[in-house]
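#struct-help
A.M.: can someone run this one for me? Single chain, 664 residues.
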Amino acid sequence: MTAAELLAKLRSGDLQGVMSALSSLPNTLRRSDEMRRIEALVQLQRSGPHAALAFLRTPPLGPTTSAATLALASQLALDCNEFDFALVTLQALVRSNPQVLRYWEMFARAAEHTQKLGVIETELTSSGIDPAASLLLSETIDRYLLKQRRHAEALQLCQRTHQQFPASSSAIRRCIRRAVELTPLSADPVQTPSPSRLGLSLDGALLDAALAIPEIFASTTVRSAWRARLFQEMQWILACAQAQRCDVSILTRMPFFLAYHGEDDLPFQRLWATIVTTLVGNTALKTSFNASATRQRSAGELRIGFVTAHLRECTIYNYFASWIGTALSSATRVALYSAGREDGVTASVGERVHIHHRYENQISSYVTIAKQIVDDDNDVLIYPEIGMEPLIAALAATRLASRQYAAWGHPVSTALSTVDGYLSFAAAEPADSQAAYAEPLHLLPGMGTCFPVIDQVRPQPDRSGSKLRLICAQSIFKWSPAFVEAVGEILHRLPNAQLHYFHAERATPNEAFVGMLEKIWQPLGINPVVRTVCHGERPREQFLQVLGSMDLALDSFGFSGGQTTVDSVSVGLPVVTLPGAFMRGRQTLGMLQLMNIDELIVESVPQYVERVIELCLAPERLMEIKQKLFERKHVALHDTAPLAALREFLETHRAATKTSDVHD
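D.P.: on it. C-alpha cells below:
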C-alpha cells in the first residue's frame, strides 16, 4: 500500500487498518522517513502529541530526515512545550527551507519561549528574510527589538509590516503605537496613518490605534493638533459602533492621557461616554439582567459595592482605602469587585468586607462581573477610577444598581448617564466646579479622604553649600511644554541646581523624554544629561527616602501632584505649585491651603520661577517651611471630617422600604 493510500485511510479514521498495513510492510520500508511520519500521525490520534513525539525521536532524527517529518516533530514539540527540542529542529528547517514562512513562525515561537531570540535574528540575517513578510514573525521580532532597546529598528519593522499588510488592523496598531511611543517628538498627527481613513471595520486593534496619542510634546501647538486628530478618530469610532453593532468586546483602551493636558476635556468625555454606552448597548445582556428577580429587602438595610481595578498598593488604593473602612462602619453589607493585579492589600482588604469577588482585568470579564453585581443587589455602587480601565468604564456605563457614583481616581467627568453623581473634594475644586462635570457634583470637605500617617522620614538638615536638589516626582506625561520651559529657566538661573525625576519607562523611553528636555532647553544652553538625575521605579519606602533627601519639589502645571504631593507633604518636602483651572490641577493647592502655607502657591509662570529661585537661595526659610509642613500635615492629610461627610452621604441611601428595584 502506498503512502498516499495510507494517508487516505488515516483521514477516514481507519487507524487499525493503517497499522495493519504498516505491519505488513518490510522493516526497511516501514522505517522509512515517510512511513515513520504516517505511524507518528496514528500515534497522535491514538495517544496524543507526547506519544507521537516520543515515537519520532526513537531513533533520533538525523540529517537525512525530511522537511515534512522535521516539521511534524517540531509542531509536536511545540504542542508538548518542549521548546528546546523544537528550537533545534526548526533551526534546521529554516536553514534548509528559508522560503517557508510557516517554519519561521514556528521558529519564532520556540525562540521566544526559550528566550533565545538572538538565534532567530542571526538566522534571519543570514537568510535575508524580512520579518515584515509575516505578521506573527514581525510581532515576535518587534518585541525582541524593544527588549534590546533597539527602538529605531522596531519602528522601521512596524512600518514595513504595515506596508506589507495594509488591511491588517494589528499591523496598523503597532505602526501607530510605535510611532507615538518611541518617537513622540517626531510623530506627526497629519502624517501618522489614520484608522478612520482606511475603510476597515472597527475592531479592538483599530480602536487602540485610533486612540493613540503621544505622552509628551515639544510644543502646545503640536499637542493641540494631536487632540484635534483624536477627536476626529473618536467620532469615527462612534459612527462604527452605531452602524456596525460592535459590542463591548472591542473596548481595549481608554483616551487616558487627555486629562493630563490640563484642558477642558468635557466634549471628549461626552463623546467617549456615548461610545462606551453604545458598545455596552450592543452587548446582549438584557435577558440575563431581567432574569435577576427583585429581592425582598428589610427596611434600614444599606448595601454598598466598590468596583475597582486598583485594589492593591497604589495611588488609587491610598486615596480611597479609608472609604472602604467608612462603608464597613456604616453599611449593612459591603461588597468589593476587584480586577487585575493583586498583592497583600488585595487579600487583607478582601478579608474585611462581607463579599469579595476577584476577576481578570480583561474586557472579557465584563458580562460575568455585571451579572454578579446585579445578583448581589447593591443599593450604592462606588467607582473610584472610571477613566483608567476599559473594563471599569464598561461596567459604569451599565445600570447595575439604583445609585452609582464616580470618584476622582481619574479626575475628569465620566459624562455617563448611568453615573448619578461625582464625589470630589472641596479643597481642590474651583468656585465654578460644576461646569466641568456632566454629573451632579457632591463635594466632601477638605481632601475628601483620610490618608494613613507617614512619620518615618523627617526634614533633612540644611546642606548649605552643596548642590541644590530639585525634584518633580510626577509621571512624565504631566510635564507640559510650559512646565518644561519654566523648569529650564529655573535651572538656567540656578547653575548649582540639579533636577531629579522618576521614570518607569512603560511606554515612552527615557531617551525620548530627555530629547524633549533637550529640544526645549536648547535656547538656554542646558544639557539635560548633565543637569538631571533619573530615578527608576522603586518601592514606596525608597521613593519616600528620595523625596526626603530633596530641597524643593516642583509641581507640574495643569495636572498637579496628587499622591506625590501627599508623599512630599508627609516627609516635609515643600512643593511650589501653580494651580490650574480644573480640580486635577489644584490638588496641591488644596493641601497647602488647608495647612495655611500660602507661600508655596503662585499665580503665574513668571511668579513660579521667581518663587522657586527665592526659596532655593534662602535655605533657612526653606527649612522653616519644611518644619511647618511636617507639623501641619495632619490638618490636610489625616482629617476625619471627610469620612464623616461620606458616612452622612451614604446614609441617605439606606433602604426605607421592603423592596428595591434593579433596572436593566
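A.M.: thanks! Residues 78 and 557 are 52 Å apart (CA to CA).
D.P.: also worth noting: The first helix runs from residue 3 to 11.
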